[in-house]
Amino acid sequence: MRSLIVDAFTQMAKEKNIDRDILASVIKDSFVKMMEKKYGLEANFEVIVNMEKGDIEIFLYKTVVEEVMDPAKEIDVESAKAKSGEDFEIDDDFVEEIPIEDFGRRNVINLKQNLNQKIREIEKEITFNYYKDLVGEIVVGEIYQLKPKSILLIHNGNEVIFPKNEQIAKERYKKGDTIRAIIKSVEKRQSGPPVVIASRADEQFLYKLFELEIPEIYDGIIEVKGIARFAGERAKIAVTSNDDRIDAVGACVGMKGIRIHSIVRELNNENIDVINYSEDPSTFISRALAPAKLLDIDIDNENKVAKIYSEEDQIRLIIGKEGQNIKLASKLTGFQIDVDRLQNEEKDEDVEDEDEDIESEEMTDEETTETPETEEVKSEETVSDEAPAAEETTEEETPAEDTDKKEEAVNESEDK
Fold it and tell me: Most CB atoms within 10 A, among 125, 173, 308, 391?
């Protein structure tokens, strides 16, 4: 029976990847508890687990006495001789080997249950420690179950949860597919194995992809200063070079964009802006808002607020599609970015001032042109003043009237 117990749990240890020494310790502790329960805490015994032989030995140590007062610790001379076949004297040490069968069937069943529980706890601890060291690292898992709110992956025989909010929205997954993701977190729970969460939407996944594709980042020559990301849509990553001879952005993009393109393909064609980091907030914010062009920036370092000024035609570029550009820039730089339209109002005021100047110029022109008009009016008045003279001339035209009367008299005489 002893060898059967050891063999069974040795096989389990192999399947669960449990160290044999740890398993031996667990088996020993289980038998120690069973001995304490049967013989008491004061009993003097030893449990030896031999994993190589698949054997368990339990020895109970007693003192030979004339009259037994404590059966768990003492034995009389006659009993000692009967059990061992040897002669003993008072105060001699007696060693008795305890067979597992002596514990009874119920105790053995309880022992197995206790061992199972211990092994499950060890398994949980091993799994937790394993994935705790993998947090932030990329793993490759196989999809084995699709659920409405999550996908279950198998990684090294362990279940990994891939929640919907950690997935890239545009991606479509099928059972049996293998995918790359980072281990985002791992948590213990009271029953069952630890909860391991995987992610492809986290900023750390983008960082690890850059680290894999760009040796300069892995070697520490290029340093990633910040990442802001809308998974599957757009991302901004700020980099700086610790070597003046190496262009950080150029190294990340690669020859003809070969490095960045492999990352973009992995992320389902996610747009990635790689920008040079700057200690100067104004410069950093300006670069983060590219390709928009800014006229000026007011920085409030205490409240982490930046007011930006730009031409009207740059506002759409600053905001970006669904506000992505300004949100990512704000997240990347750590500043709340406000688009101040004061510049546009000032331009409108300038236009109004120009209009007023034009109007004043037109008024001046009108005043200038009024002088000849007044002169023309005055000349007409002069002509009207001379009109009576003309009338007088008309009244003095009596000789013409006399001539007409004479012609009429001549005509009358001819008629007669």
Answer: 308
